[in-house]
From TrEMBL:
Source species, domain of life: Bacteria
Residue ranges the record marks as coiled coil: none
Stored Pfam families: DAHP_synth_1 (PF00793)
Organism: Carboxydothermus pertinax
A biological process from GO: aromatic amino acid family biosynthetic process
Annotated protein name in UniProt: 3-deoxy-7-phosphoheptulonate synthase
GO molecular function, one term: aldehyde-lyase activity
Record InterPro entries: Aldolase_TIM, Class-I_DAHP_synthase, DAHP1/KDSA, DAHP_syn_2
Alphabetized UniProt keyword annotations: Transferase
DAHP synthetase I/KDSA domain residues: 11-258
Amino acid sequence: KVSRKSKSKKTVITVKDVKIGNGDPVIIAGPCAVEGEEEYIAEALFLKEAGVQILRGGAFKPRTSPYAFSGLGVEGLKILAKAREITGLPVVTEVMDPRDVEIVGKYADILQIGSRNMQNFTLLKEVGLVDKPVLLKRGLAATIKEWFLAAEYIVNSGNEQVILCERGIRTFEDYTRNTFDLAGMVAALDLTHLPVIADPSHATGRSELVGRVALGALAAGADGIMVEVHPHPEEALSDGRQSLDYEEFKKLMSVIKRFKSQS
Ligand code: PEP
Ligand code: MN
């Protein structure tokens, strides 16, 4: 169902006034995690001013160490909803547990399935019952076929609004956090009618690489990018090393605006 063979026309997903997959790449940005109300609202206002169309921020965070900050939970969801109210921008946030799908669906405009949960079939079926778009990240060791079959689970449950996100895969290379699979992303754009976006933050793990990888993805035809931004990356509670500060993000946005006006 997700392949171009079953539907040659590209799927365009509409969230509030934003369209994903219509040829104009969408910019999603925000901190890795929602860290507090004041901080998040301030950042949301900065991002809106910078031209961001969708806000991100984790409330339920999958962390490698059980001792690391795992997000504000429902309090984080409420902060996201408040940021949406203030900025008018839609918000995307991760849901990790089938038991949380209802509450996350109540607050978020787009439900994110994280890389680690790409093959959590119970969770996939559950978000398939929700009438909101799902952002499905590629598993860190998933083939394109496995990624598409995961999307198929969501579609089969009744939800056809799926956005795929290439966020890097595990290889022997450990200089970067993951290896950004540009060829895989391009192949996915050819093989599915669903929108395909890139996450250069988790794909690289290094802020100095994020901007150029983001531009590479856009040049290759990505339907959007999702970037982690933090006012003080060195103080971030998660993923500071890969987060752009405000100056870096503004610079990236000015290059993206030039790119968009030329294409
Ligand atoms: C995230 O987007 O915050 C995240 C945890 O990403 P991934 O699931 O790709 O690691
Ligand atoms: Mn992160």
